[in-house]
Amino acid sequence: MKTKILTGDRATGALHLGHYIGSLKSRVELQQQYDQTILIADLQGLTDNGHNPKKVSENILNVMADYLAVGIDPEITTICLQSAIPALSELTMYYSNIVTVSRLERNPTVKSEIKNKKFGESIPAGFLTYPISQAADITAFKANLVPVGDDQLPMIEQTNEIVRKFNSIVGEDILVECKALLSSVSRLPSVDGKTKMSKTLGNAITLGSSSKEITSAVKKMFTDPNHLRIEDPGQIEGNVVFTYLDAFHPDKAQVKGLKEHYQRGGLGDGQVKKILDICLQDLLEPIRTKRKELIDDRQYLIDVLKAGTEKANQEAEETLKTVKASLGLNIWTDR
Asked: A single Gene Ontology molecular function, please (predicted)?
């Protein structure tokens, strides 16, 4: 039996280069080795967009198109919609009764995101408890591995706490613990170098960006502010252009040579940006073309997502049935 992997994205906007290098590219490779399920997390998207549900609903098929455009194959990877799998919400409710509010508030990932989103005292209850929802997602599909960035490790830890607590309460190993599969690529910075690339913050190059949008974004990229003349030695540390070249340029030897040239002087920022622009245009042009074809065939996207969701729903229902039986809550049903 193949190791099971669960991964996914919030449906709050089209996916961007940070997603591509951090997860999408690896998912295309992982689907050949593992039993992979990808969850379009629209419910989680609502945890901080409850006042604007259209931001979520209108992006579900955008995310679906991004998945297929980069090469994720629905014949071997199950792609499903979180809100269309009722067992996930029911499992979330059961788990919420064995997790304290104080434990959720201590979760470093949640604390950081609450600060970044500037909720103040107006934290949506759903946002505070979304680690429990993630635990429901992971355990519903009995995922052994969960690909994450290192900032998400506290979420994996909390999931395994829930698993151990639940198994202890019912007296048998019903739920399965998981391990994090860390990305080999650090988070991609925004074009200005101030924060991570984020669709929410509007500082991202999306997979569907036009040629002009890519060029415009590259021109705005932060370099070395002290590199005032071409002949001056420049720094590559914190230089966003070189960070992107490291991440996306296929010729690592050429990138190494560019770094050395830039550091000793004689290489202008404009020239380096032109090289990056060509690199990103070559990468995104076929993805953009395929993505447009998919977006234009809305019914195909719906059909593929529906088929994957039906398959995932059956698996999650089996987990729910076992959980309810272990809690003694299947008195007059076969669930």
From this structure: tryptophan-tRNA ligase activity
Measure the CA–CA gap between 4 and 26, rounded to whole angstroms.
Answer: 15
**Residue 67 pLDDT level (bands cut at 50, 70, 90):** very high
Which domains does the chain show, CATH number per domain? 4-187+297-327 (3.40.50.620), 211-293 (1.10.240.10)
Structure tokens at 29: 């490779």
Which tops the pLDDT comparison, 76 or 189? 76
Label residue 2 by pLDDT band (50, 70, 90): confident
Assigned token pair, 235: 């720094």
Is the predicted pLDDT of residue 334 greater than 60, yes or no?
A: no
pLDDT in tens, 124-158: 999 999 999 999 999 999 999 999 888 889 999 99
- The strands making up 77-81's β-sheet, listed across from edge to edge, are 77-81, 35-41, 4-10, 145-148, 179-182
Backbone angles phi, psi at 38, to 5 degrees: -115, 125
Which residues touch 108 (CB under 8 Å, ≥6 apart)? Answer: 154
SS3 13: coil
- d(Cα 264, Cα 156) in Å, to the nearest integer? 44
Cα distance between residue 59 and residue 101, in whole Å: 31
Burial of 100 (0-12, 13-18, 19+ CB in 10 A): exposed
For 152-210, the DSSP string reads GHHHHHHHHHHHHHHHHHHTS--S---EEEE-SSPPPBPTTSSSB--TTTT---BTT--
Round to whole Å and give the CA distance between 133 and 105: 15
Which residue, 315, 316, 319, 311, is CA-closest to 79?
311
pLDDT of residue 194: 74
Q: What is the mean pLDDT of the chain?
A: 93
Q: Which DSSP helix (H) or strand (E) runs through 8?
A: strand 4-10
